[in-house]
Amino acid sequence: MARETTCRGCGAPIVFVKSKIGKYIPCDAQLVRYRANPEGKDVVVVEGEGAVRCDLEFEGLPTGMARISHFATCPRAGEFRRKT
């Protein structure tokens, strides 16, 4: 289950979603509909799976609901990225 909090950088509501390997990914709190597509232009974070390439704009039924990584939307994301 995702843990809810607020971003220390921009103050937006976020949740930490657990990936398949057990790491937590900061994501926007709002759920979005997506359709899985290995060739898709978008990426969402699915609870228990992690990043999934997809389409956010499509016709027909969605694959499911997921969240967008907050690193993609936060204006201060660079301050929180880990250096490798």
Overview of the molecule:
The chain is mainly beta. The protein has strands at about 5, 15-20, 25-30, 30-35, 40-45, 50-55, 65. It has one domain (about 5-80). It has no helices and 7 strands. The chain has a 4-stranded antiparallel sheet with strand order 5-6-4-7, with no helix packed on it. It has a 3-stranded antiparallel sheet with strand order 1-2-3, with no helix packed on it. Strand 5 (about 40-45) and strand 6 (about 50-55) form a beta hairpin. The radius of gyration is 13 Å and the shape is globular.
What shape does the CA trace take?
Answer: globular
SSE pattern, N- to C-terminal: EEEEEEE
Helix tally equals 0
Low-confidence stretches: none
Rg calc: 13 Å
- By helix and strand content, what is the structural category? mainly beta
Overall pLDDT confidence? 92
- Let me know the largest β-sheet: 4 strands, antiparallel
**Major beta sheet, strand line-up:** 5-6-4-7
Distance between the termini: 28 Å
Kindly state the percentage of residues in helix.
under 10%
In total, the number of strands is: 7
What is the strand content?
35-45%
The figure for the number of domains is 1
